[in-house]
Amino acid sequence: MDSDPESVIGRRGSYAKGVARRKEILDRAIEVFAERGADGTSLRRIAEAIGVSHATLLHYFDSREQLLVAVYDHAEQLRSVTDDPGASAVEVMVDAATRNVGVPGMVQLYSTLVATAIEEPAGEAKDFFTRRFDVVRAESARRLREEQAAGRVRDDIDADTLAAMLVAVSDGLQTQWLLDPAIDLRETLSLFSALLAPR
Amino acid sequence: MDSDPESVIGRRGSYAKGVARRKEILDRAIEVFAERGADGTSLRRIAEAIGVSHATLLHYFDSREQLLVAVYDHAEQLRSVTDDPGASAVEVMVDAATRNVGVPGMVQLYSTLVATAIEEPAGEAKDFFTRRFDVVRAESARRLREEQAAGRVRDDIDADTLAAMLVAVSDGLQTQWLLDPAIDLRETLSLFSALLAPR
DNA sequence: GTCTATACGAAGATAGAC
DNA sequence: GTCTATCTTCGTATAGAC
């Protein structure tokens, strides 16, 4: 029972060598996206930056879209080590947003992939982000429910609804911040907790 | 003084014929986007659907991006005739969202363009949406300020901040709704007004 | 001014050689 | 497993017909 569930994205070479190479590619690709944004990152340019041909990338990932999703997924897993179960739902969002502020390229990638997911009726991105929103909302709702029980969050509105709002505010504010850095992402998101205070 | 400011996007033929043709193209393009989404809409496919060559489109618009922005802009102007100055900020957002629910293709286009705006350091989309977010936030803040003065909205948080949150919630929820239609867009957005109620 | 035909380079993807 | 073609489609640019 050692089926390392690291990533469900881009199943391919299940052999040791392939797995390692795959990880190498992802690590290097993350750096590429962190440097330049999601723009100008064609398969060929990514391959060039890594030092292989673009066909090689397609040997490990079925498509550019799948590679991009895998990159985002891998980058996210590297960061979310901070799993403080006691943190409030808003705090978790603020922390995530704070980390994102340092790496605009990843927020760009996120935004690009969400747009892709929305455009295509079926595809890697759609599956991934539908599931991801489910997970993030559920996790957020769980925290909110605890806070409601503890009397720290108003309980006149369903926790699931509040969770959807919180995730929406977080995503929406990051978009606005990327277009206009004058927006105080951290501060505004923090203030959202005031809206959640019990009445 | 008849300088019809209809659209600042894609300046070209200022002659009668050109203006009319331009409008024809936009009207037809809107239908195309309403039918299929923003996906599969290359310049050539759009041109084909309209019945012209793709070179013709570039005669009226400098680039594909400019055309897309113009399409979104034009479609939006056709709808926002409902300018009830007395409506609450949340009501305006709920109305807009309600209209959007009927035309997923336009929400897809919006999402695609915002992603483009975020990716590119400079470009048509970036200029347009930066300005647009400014306008929407300002208009929303104006309404919220009035509501605060009338005692219908809590005034312990700055109206500009609340406006940024409201716009973020609206955008974020539409994204979630497109990925999972089980999300009750109207209802959830409406409930946001409960968070804004005075304490 | 309006529009078409055509050409160019870059892109994602596939096939097959090594 | 990795490469070099190669195919198709894309955005864009230009030349010129009407």
Layout of SSEs?
Two copies of one chain form a homodimer.
Chain A: H1 16-35, H2 43-50, H3 54-60, H4 64-79, H5 89-102, H6 104-119, H7 124-149, H8 159-179, H9 185-196
Chain B binds a DNA duplex (18 and 18 nucleotides) through helix 1 and helix 3.
Describe this structure in words.
Two copies of one chain form a homodimer. By secondary structure, the first copy, chain A, is mainly alpha-helical. Chain A folds into two domains: 1-64, Homeodomain-like (Arc Repressor Mutant, subunit A, Orthogonal Bundle), CATH 1.10.10.60; 80-196. The first copy, chain A, is built from nine helices and no strands. Chain A has helices at 16-35, 43-50, 54-60, 64-79, 89-102, 104-119, 124-149, 159-179, 185-196. The longest helix of chain A has 26 residues, at 124-149. The radius of gyration of chain A is 18 Å and the shape is elongated. The model of chain A is unreliable at 1-6 (pLDDT under 50). The A-B interface holds A 37-39, 107-108, 111-112, 114-115, 117-121, 126, 129-130, 133-134, 137, 156-157, 161, 164-165, 167-173, 175-176, 178-180, 183, 188, 191-192, 194-196, 199 and B 37-39, 107-108, 111-112, 114-115, 117-121, 126, 129-130, 133-134, 137, 156-157, 161, 164-165, 167-173, 175-176, 178-180, 183, 188, 191-192, 194-196, 199. Chain B binds a DNA duplex (18 and 18 nucleotides) through residues 13, 15, 17-18, 21, 42-44, 52-56, 58-60, 63-64.
